[in-house]
Structures are given as C-alpha cells and as structure tokens.
Write a structure and sequence with these properties.
Helix content: 40-55%
CATH topology of the largest domain: Spore Coat Polysaccharide Biosynthesis Protein SpsA, Chain A
Structural class: alpha/beta
Mean pLDDT: 88
Largest sheet: 9 strands, mixed
CATH class of the largest domain: Alpha Beta
Number of strands: 9
CATH superfamily of the largest domain: Spore Coat Polysaccharide Biosynthesis Protein SpsA, Chain A
Low-confidence stretches: none
Distance between the termini: 101 Å
C-alpha cells in the first residue's frame, strides 16, 4: 500500500452522532490522499456509519481502542505515533472542516514561504449550535475566531493560543523532535505543544476560515460539552500551572526558553485586560454623563421658555 500524504487523527469518547458528522467532513475533502486514525477512549460503539466505513476502508482507516482514563495529550500521541504519513492533523470528534482545508493546507506546506516551515495553521470559525433532537444540530450563529490571524510568532502565541487543534497541519518529524504532547495536562496540551513547536520551527498561516470549531455553550456537562465551556476554571488554572512550570525550570537553570517569555506575556495580558475593563467603565460613565447633560440642557431650555413667557 502506498503511504498517504496526510494522517488525520481523531480523538473520540462516547460521541457516535458527532463522530459521524466529523467523518462526513473528512470524506467531503477535495484532497483525498489521507489515512484516518481513530483513537477511541469510549465505552460506546462508534456508531453504524463509522463502523461500516472502518470495515470498508480498512487499508486507510483504523480504530485504536484506548483506556478510558487517558487525557487528550496521551490520545494524540497514540494516534500520531500510529500514523504513517509525513503530515499530521488532529480533527476531534465534534469539529469539522471546509471541504478545501486539506488541499490548501498541504499546498502551502509543500510550497512554503519559509523553507524551514514546519506547519500551517488556518483561520477558524466558531460555530455555535444546539441539539435540535438526538443526533441533529442546529447552527445558531457563526463568528470568526481569529480573523486578523496572518502570521504566527512565539510572543503572540505565548500570550494567547491563536489557532485551534483542527486548524493545524504539521510535519510529523517536528512532533517526534519535540517529544509529542504532554500527557499530564487535562486541558491546554495543544497550547503547550504549539509553544514548543515554535521553538523548533516556523508556522505559516492560511488567512481563510477553513476550520470549524463547534461550540455548544448550553451544554456544560456530559459527552456533548466543550472542554472550554465545561471547564473554564480548569483552563485558567492549568494556564497558570504551565507558566509556573516553565518559569521554575528557567529560574533553577534546568531549562532556558519559555519561562520569562510566558511570565512577561501573562503580565502584559493581565494588564491589557485591566485596561480594557477600565475603558469599558469609562465609556459607560461617559454615556451616563452624556445623558445627564442632555437632560440638564432640556431642563434649562424648559425653564428658559417658562421665564420668557412670564
């Protein structure tokens, strides 16, 4: 069998209906030289449609049963290490792509602006949805996640993870060189991976919204919930934990690199958030003052007309 160009890694756990939609998105890609590695940590069957596809496409699609307790980073590592292609991309079981995502991403990676480029990230749409009935979702609104994303550097990514997992096609060789994803992080393993990736190689940008991040903000628990919605406090905690970890290593002299950068980025980010909060308060106060001035002027005009009439 010929080695495919791209390995698509899908992490799933007890989401058969969502997984079917993700598979449909893969099969709708205009670029077809891919293999699918499904890493399944669930107890439910992946569903009839997915099972039938795995059986009919056994040469380029296979399912790996993973322990239920594994975190997302560990599931990613299992999938990437089991893959055979030179290029890798993760597409989780509740997300989708524009049909031309793979084609445009692989074209850019094959003909990069920088000969040392290691990956390509596309802009992303946030798709807010709700379940109409079991297995059927209604899109309520779509908003761009990162419409100004045109380039990527370590400083900007240290401040904010600027692209989603499913928007990032990269060379497997870089994954192997930096040691894959951290397996001890319940969230933000992708942010940590992206930072270490940028220490090793550059990432080019596709300035088009070719990836879809599906958000069910009314689902805060259960298998349908997004991790960012269901575990916002956990994201905040582990963001700080990651920063502290790198800063400790740098302070102790164990490892140089991300500690000071992350610390400064966090300080700047906090300061900017405070400034934005103060700006919102000032705008609110300014509007209130404007309304008071308008009422005062109206009152003065009324008094003045009454005085003239006398």
């Amino acid at each position: 069998m010929q080695v495919p160009k791209i390995s698509i890694i899908t992490r799933t756990k007890n989401r058969p209906a969502l997984l079917e939609r993700t598979l449909r998105s893969i099969r709708e890609q205009t670029f077809t030289d891919w293999e699918w590695v499904l890493v399944d940590a669930g107890q439910q069957s992946p569903g009839a449609v997915v099972t039938a596809f795995l059986e009919s496409e056994a040469l380029r699609a296979h399912r790996i049963t993973a322990p239920e307790h594994l975190l997302m980073g560990a599931m990613s590592n299992i999938g990437v290490r089991a893959s055979s292609a030179d290029y890798v991309v993760l597409l989780d079981d509740d997300d989708t792509w524009h049909p031309e995502f793979l084609q445009k991403a692989v074209d850019r990676l094959n003909d990069p602006v920088d000969p040392l480029i290691g990956g390509v990230a596309a802009q992303t749409n946030r798709v807010y949805e709700r379940e109409e009935k079991e297995g059927e979702w209604i899109t309520e609104k779509t908003k761009p996640l990162n419409p100004t994303l045109e380039s990527l550097d370590i400083v900007s990514v240290a401040s904010n993870n600027r692209f989603t997992v499913n928007a990032f096609l990269y060379r497997k060789a870089i994954f192997e060189k930096i040691g894959g994803y951290r397996e001890d992080l319940p969230v933000l393993d992708d942010w940590d991976f992206n930072l270490r990736f940028l220490l090793e190689s550059n990432i080019d940008v596709l300035p088009e919204p070719l990836a879809n991040w599906h958000i069910r903000d009314n689902a805060t628990n259960g298998s349908q919930a997004n991790s960012l919605v269901a575990a916002k406090s956990k994201h905040l905690y582990y963001r700080a934990a990651i920063i502290n970890d790198y800063m400790r290593k740098e302070i102790s002299g164990e490892e140089q690199g991300l500690g000071k950068l992350l610390g400064l980025s966090s300080l700047i980010d906090t300061s900017l958030n405070k400034i934005e909060s103060l700006q919102r308060k000032l705008i609110s106060v300014s509007r209130k003052v404007g309304r008071i001035d308008a009422r005062t002027k109206t009152l003065k005009d009324t008094i003045a007309r009454g005085t003239k009439n006398k």
